[in-house]
Amino acid sequence: MARMATFPDDYRDLLDAQFATLATVEPDGTPQLSEIWFLHDDGELRLSLNTARRKTQNLMQRDQCSLMILDIENPFRYVEVRGRARIEPDDDHAFAGKLHGKYNADVAAYDQPGDKRVVVTIEPTRIRPVDMSA
Amino acid sequence: MARMATFPDDYRDLLDAQFATLATVEPDGTPQLSEIWFLHDDGELRLSLNTARRKTQNLMQRDQCSLMILDIENPFRYVEVRGRARIEPDDDHAFAGKLHGKYNADVAAYDQPGDKRVVVTIEPTRIRPVDMSA
């Protein structure tokens, strides 16, 4: 069992990257990929998701997921964080507001009436750093 | 059911990208992500994989997969190709040689004695273009 505490020091720059790729699993077992914003917050990797989205619904059904943070400057280098998604309400958009601080953009800007925001915290089971350029 | 014939014209530039992200599914149901080389070959998306690798073993057990090609210049834009992996032998490295042509590098350079190369062709069931910057 990995924990964020074991995140490798020489990949910590990626915790401040702008984008990550989230893999969830569809009801039929096929993986689903999305490019997302994220925040390294309180030592954890956290996402702000809209509950109307397929990726969120997938995580509500099956919490197994993987997050890849790619070094855009050197795509031979990345870290994959595999684990489980802990989903918590963000009804007051407290966490969405934190993301706003990182991106200077409102992640909830395109939410529709009735959509809800949740905070998804990745609970790592495996942290896999890769550098094929090394 | 999608086919490569339905690949959207305004994303075809991504077929010549240098990198893609492959999602497979671990035996326990967790998605697994790797950054890989690929080739748009004969109208199909094809990979050269080493059978000793976990991603290849995952695909041999469960052929459901997803390939994301990200526009590195604009990570708001990408295409996700979800589908099934058709795995065929590449014992003579004919396909690995084609990849060599694209990358000017030998994908089999780090293979160990006894490792085998296979050609993996993605048979799309869904092609999902995304442009969050549009």
Mean pLDDT of chain A: 95
What percent strand of chain A? 35-45%
What is the element string of chain A, with H for helices and E for strands?
A: EEEEHEEHE
Q: What gyration radius of chain A follows from the Cα positions, in whole Å?
A: 15 Å
Looking at how many chains there are and whether they match, the oligomeric state comes to: homodimer
N- to C-terminal separation of chain A? 26 Å
Structural category of chain A: mainly beta
Looking at the structure, what is the overall shape of chain A?
globular
Continuous helix count of chain A: 2
Structural summary, described in words:
The structure is a homodimer of 134-residue chains. Chain A has helices spanning 54-61, 94-103; strands spanning 20-25, 31-36, 39-41, 44-50, 64-70, 77-89, 117-131. In chain A, a hairpin with a 5-residue loop joins β1 (20-25) and β2. Chain A is globular and about 50 Å long. Chain A has 134 residues and is mainly β. Chain A has a seven-stranded antiparallel sheet with strand order 2-1-5-6-7-4-3, sandwiched between helices. The A-B interface holds A 18-19, 21, 23-26, 28-35, 62, 64-66, 68, 70, 72, 75-76, 78, 80, 82-83, 125, 130, 132 and B 18-19, 21, 23-26, 28-35, 62, 64-66, 68, 70, 72, 75-76, 78, 80, 82-83, 125, 130, 132.
In short:
Two copies of one chain form a homodimer. Helices cover 13% and strands 43% of the residues of chain A.
List keywords for this structure.
134 residues, mainly beta
Topology, please?
Two copies of one chain form a homodimer.
Chain A: E1 20-25, E2 31-36, E3 39-41, E4 44-50, H1 54-61, E5 64-70, E6 77-89, H2 94-103, E7 117-131
Antiparallel strand pairs in A: 1-2, 1-5, 3-4, 4-7, 5-6, 6-7
